[in-house]
Design brief:
By secondary structure, this protein is mainly alpha-helical. Helices cover about 85% and strands about 0% of the residues. The chain contains three helices and no strands. The protein is elongated.
Amino acid sequence: MSIFWLAGAAFIGGIAAALLGWVDSAEPFQSRKFGSSVIRALIAGVVFAVGYSFANGLTPIDIGIAFLGGAGVDVLGNRGIGAIKMRAMWNNR
């Protein structure tokens, strides 16, 4: 059962990062961008759940790390996609 808490924390961290990024951008809500963040958050949840399934116990610190890890996956995913788009734009000039 603790694996579900960990996966949920990573998922919520990814969603929180996506929502905070949207609020900071002052752009209108775009469901396509938010959908990709949801997929990245799901992937982060699965990765943390699988990774911690081999651990002996789960502490509140582990849940906090999963939350931050989920947020990091979303942020790094957005930065990576942005860098790839910029590179493609510069190569098409």
